[in-house]
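Entry 14. Ran structure prediction on the chain below.
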Amino acid sequence: MEIESTVRALIAKTCLALDGNDYAGYLNLCHENFNYRITAYSPEIRKDMLWLEKNKRDLKDLFNLLPKQNMDRTPLTRHFSIFTVEPAGQEGHVKVMSALQVFRTEHQGGTTSLVAVGKYLDEIQVSSDGAVLVDREVRLDTRMLGKGYHVPF
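Output, C-alpha cells:
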C-alpha cells in the first residue's frame, strides 16, 4: 500500500505542476532518461498515431518555447484516477495505468468543459528517496482537441 500512495502522490504532483504551468517543477519529477508520448488510436486508418514524442531535454525545450506560442491560455485542470499498479521489468520500477480527464475553465470562472479523456500509462521508479517518472504515454481517446493547445497533458 505504501508504493501505491507514493505513486499516487507523484502523479498528483505532475498534474498540479502542469495545471500551474510549473514546467520546471514537472521536469524535476522526471528521471533524467524520461520519455513522454501522446498517442491515440485511429479507427479510420486502423493504426496507432504518435502525436508527440519527447525526451526530457526536448520537453524542456518545448516548455521554454511556450511563452512565444500563439495559443489558448485558458487554464487546464487534470484529473486522474489510478486503475492499476504492477511491477515492471526492472527492480524498483512499477507500471501504473490511470484514467485521465482534462478540463478547461474560462478565465472568468465561467463555463467548464471537457477537453480530453484518456489514460496515463506510466513507468515510475520508486526508491527510498521517493519516486520519479521514467516514462509516460498519454493514450488519448479524444482525437479532436481543437486548436491552440501546445501544453502536454
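The mean pLDDT is 91. Will compare against last week's run tomorrow.
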